[in-house]
Amino acid sequence: MFSCLKILHQAFCSNDIEAMAIVWALFFTSNVGVKRAVLEGDSLAVIKGLREDDSSLATFGLLVEDAKVLSQQFDELLYSHTKRESNMVAYTLARYAIGILDFVVWIEDVSPQLHSILKADLLGLFQ
């Protein structure tokens, strides 16, 4: 398990941010040797774009294409869509990111602020 935070010094729409996060996550995990992963996101448009073979003309389309190229480095990669209201882990990370300077990573661990929320998410309490 990996979790990370990165400050973006520019305003983007939510789909663009979701696509950027996915590209970064795939790049990072493939570089540390992960071969099997489940990627969860709350943007149905981005998740749908990742699952389809067609190219997208959306603003995040090139990022989705980058993600598809990176996905070839995995033996197994599943995409899972979750409702935005149920994505408390991402919401909590985003709120915590306000206080960081640039970049934070947790490997095989999670931020102390996330322990109870992650447990609830794994138990399906936010669905």
List key phrases describing it:
127 residues, Nucleotidyltransferase, domain 5, two-stranded antiparallel sheet, two-stranded parallel sheet, 4 strands, globular
Question: How would you sum up this structure, described in words?
Answer:
Strands 1-4 form a two-stranded antiparallel sheet. It has a two-stranded parallel sheet with strand order 2-3. The chain has one domain (2-122): Nucleotidyltransferase, domain 5 (2-Layer Sandwich), CATH 3.30.420. The protein has helices spanning 14-31, 44-51, 61-71, 88-97, 115-122; strands at residues 2-6, 36-41, 76-81, 103-107. The longest helix has 18 residues, at 14-31. Helix content is 43%, strand content 17%. It has 127 residues and is an alpha+beta fold. InterPro entries: RNase_H-like (IPR053151), RNase_H-like_dom_plant (IPR044730), RNaseH-like_sf (IPR012337), RNaseH_domain (IPR002156), RNaseH_sf (IPR036397). It comes from Lithocarpus litseifolius. Residues 6-97 form the RNase H type-1 domain.
